[in-house]
Amino acid sequence: MLCIPPYNASNNIDDSVVAVATAYCEKRRAMLLLDSPSEWTSVDLAQTGFPNKYAAPSHNAAVFFPRVNMPNPLHGDQIEPFAPSGIIAGIFARIDTQRGVWKSPAGLDAAMLGVSSMTVPMTDEDNGLLNPQGLNCLRTFPVFGRVVWGARTMRGADAFGDEYKYIAVRRTALFIEESLYRALKWVVFEPNDEPLWGQIRLNVGAFMHNLFRQGAFQGASARDAYFVRCDASTTTQNDINLGIVNVNVGFAPLKPAEFVVIRLQQIAGQIET
Asked: What positions does the domain Tail sheath protein C-terminal occupy (predicted)?
């Protein structure tokens, strides 16, 4: 995860910094948590400003609205507005530890401890306007207090129909991709043939089955929850000649047997010198 709160609570991060940070997260398989601009002081301003400000939305980034009011220890605990991205990152980390990256970092489990109120109070109707655009709302509820009430990526607008609409789905894919990328580095000096492919299927299958047993995927059986393919159908003779082995991994994050597919490439069949 990456978040870049503004130096001053009333300021914003430059668009150029957001662009660089987004590209960095896409390259590093990370998630960027963005604060809504301080100028969005109403639901109407957020509704019109969100699609205009982020013309090239990324599924490796998410935006949260509004800003929060909380005590400032540097000013005698006076209640002041703050950008929430640091708080959101802490909630992500807490839920990752308690439940796993596949659990949506929102809902009653995503309590914003220490926050006094939101700078813009929101109703269910307001939430219904912003959430379908992919803007994640921060809400206050009686009894439950302040919580994160949205878990969509910047590609989460209903109009996009993106397979990475939800933060949890995208982060699960990034987690699997990064884990397998690191775990399969050993293949580089192995002959690129069926014995190697079988070993890859075995290793990756064990990893995916462990996630399945932890509840990361939907489906009552492993067959409905995930698949691993690494054979002549994924790695052609031309790939072998180029020293490449391809692995296709699918997982069902929302419904059984409805897979999000990750395609990995590794160097293989190199002669050690």
From this structure: 163-265
* 240 falls within a domain: yes
Asked if 189 contacts 270 with a C-beta cutoff of 8 angstroms, the reply is yes
Asked if the model's pLDDT at residue 20 lies above 90, the reply is yes
Last residue of a domain, one of 115, 132, 165: 165
Ranges assigned E (strand) in 210-270: 226-229, 244-251, 260-267
CB proximity list for 4: less than 8 A, separation 6 or greater: 13, 17, 21, 85
Of 6-10, 117-121, 132-136, 205-209, which gets the smallest average pLDDT? Answer: 6-10
Question: How many domains does one find in the chain?
Answer: 2
Tell whether 138 and 36 lie within a shared domain. Answer: yes
pTM (two decimals): 0.93
Sequence letter at residue 22:
T
Residue 231 lies in a domain: yes
Tell whether 160 and 218 lie within a shared domain: no
| Residue 262, domain member (yes or no) | yes
Any domain includes 157: yes
Give the Cα separation of 84 and 6 in Å (integer): 10
DSSP E strand stretches across the chain: 2-3, 32-35, 61-65, 68-72, 78-82, 117-118, 135-141, 145-148, 226-229, 244-251, 260-267
Residue 34 dihedral angles phi and psi, to the nearest 5°: -110, 140
> What is the domain extent for residue 260?
184-267
Give the number of other Cβ atoms within 10 Å of residue 247's Cβ: 22
pLDDT band at 10 (very low <50, low <70, confident <90, very high): confident
Asked if 38 contacts 10 with a C-beta cutoff of 8 angstroms, the reply is yes
* Predicted confidence (pLDDT) per residue in 235-258, tens digit: 999 999 999 999 999 999 999 999
